[in-house]
Design brief:
The chain is mostly helical. It has two helices and no strands. The N and C termini lie far apart (about 35 Å).
Length: about 60
């Protein structure tokens, strides 16, 4: 069972983003897989921003 994005470390989120980006590049145009991968990539980007902001605030 995959780890939810909210439970991933920043490094794990970056790895997941690379994996999702690869899926987006490989998915056929206009496919459900492409749209699903894009949505997951957007969600991952949002979690990376949150984690980065929390780290900056903690070290601020």
């Amino acid at each position: 069972m995959p780890i939810p994005l909210c439970d991933m470390t920043l490094d794990e989120l970056r790895d997941e983003r690379r994996r999702l980006h690869k899926l987006v590049r490989q998915a056929p145009a206009w496919s459900a897989r492409l749209e699903t991968s894009k949505l997951a990539l957007d969600e991952c980007d949002a979690w990376i921003r949150r984690r980065s902001q929390h780290q900056e605030a903690a070290h601020g």
